[in-house]
Amino acid sequence: MTDPTAAPLRPRHGRPGRPKSIARHGRLSRRHPFASLGKIIAGIAVVAGVSAFSLTTMAVGDVVHSTKPAVVLVDPTTHKEVTQQQGIEALQGSFNVLLAGSDSGDGNKAYGERGENLNDVTMLMHVSADHQHVTVVSFPRDMLVPIPSCPNPKGGYYSAMSAQKINVTLSYGGLACTALTVEKLTGLSIPYAALIQFDGVVDMSNAVGGVPVCLSGPIKDPYTGLDLPAGTSTIKGQQALAFLRTRHGVGDGSDLGRISNQQVFLSSLVRTIKSADTLGNPLKVYSLAKAAASNMQLSTSLSNVQTMASMAVALKGADLANVVFVQFPTNYVDGGGAVAPDEAGEQALLTALQHDEPVQVTGTTGIGSVQDPSHATSASAATGAATDAASAPTPTPSTAPTAGSTPSASPSSSAVALPSEVHGQSADDYTCSRPYGK
């Protein structure tokens, strides 16, 4: 059956007052990318996967002949290409990496039927100047945002639009347009970007030997073919892909529920990649790099092995509690067929990112997940579980979230406590996927 897609491109009236961004225009380059960064939805590969890149130079070299052309990001103030860092040392200061997940599936049931290439997963990773805090923001695919004038890969520019679903930007102007749109939305400069094919999830989950995920009840989704029992399952391959793509099987069947379900997987993936079992195994590290490189299209600023190694050096010391996944806060509009940014939550989140401040989630983990009661949790997950338990039916007794759990220490004494409108969790929070309607 068909998963809903964005409406045809047409201008709408959007909200004024967006923070100004440093827009970058892109064009395709015929250079072959030198390598590739972690895999999204695994989208976070850069978050954790990048930690392994300090050991993956050999794998990067092995995939140097990738056939995907790199995307050039150009600074409009100088009209010059965004330069690549040279030398393998830690990147200086804060930096942002855009990760877009393409939903093209080539007949794979887990993708659903698609008539166009959409970025159904769009994430922005912000790394703080001290390289100790990482914030990964997931943008709902149906969120209405202004789309700036984007370069047409065939020449010229597309017209700007006042409001359109963010997941059409990839089909509208390619990865460069998605980067421009997120820059306009957030007011953040984005010098690095990567387009990930979902098949990379299969390869990455295989490379680490599978990713353990917790389910508070059995999940069955005929749209993706997912069929998992309650409890913890270690998933990889097509099963991992189906888990990340499921929407009808979790929460309320919405894309918002899918985001929180994906964060269950991503937090576990980060823990798995950063574990000694992975980083201490050269074969696994090599396989991770190859899985990433084979399934990504990079901006030229990111396609240099030295740049990725520098990111690895910068991120290797980040504590799991300081890697925070958040869902961009939204409210339903247009009769529930789309969402728009929630002003209070949006302002708090973007102000923190623009000022390079670490964040702490005080809201719930999201409609598609609950706290895993069998693990100690941080303040964000404990608070989220308490709210979840008060507002939703209780899962099976053996896996029910524990309301009112005593939170552990805050990830950082200087972290900005986000309002409850912002949902998410840290990589140190153990959460379980919530079955549809439960």
Q: Which range does the strand content fall in?
A: 15-25%
Count of helices? 11
Helix content: 25-40%
Find the CATH topology: Aminopeptidase
Structural class: alpha+beta
Could you say what the CATH architecture is?
Answer: 3-Layer(aba) Sandwich
Number of domains: 1
| Rg estimate, integer Å | 20 Å
Specify the CATH homologous superfamily.
LCP protein
| Largest beta-sheet characterization | 7 strands, mixed
Beta strand count: 22
Cross-sheet strand order for the largest sheet: 14-9-4-5-6-15-21
Overall mean confidence score, pLDDT: 76
Low-pLDDT windows of residues: 1-58, 63-67, 377-410
CATH C-level name: Alpha Beta
Shape: globular
Biased composition (Polar residues): 362-372
Domain Cell envelope-related transcriptional attenuator: 119-274
Biased composition (Low complexity): 373-420
Family: Belongs to the LytR/CpsA/Psr (LCP) family.
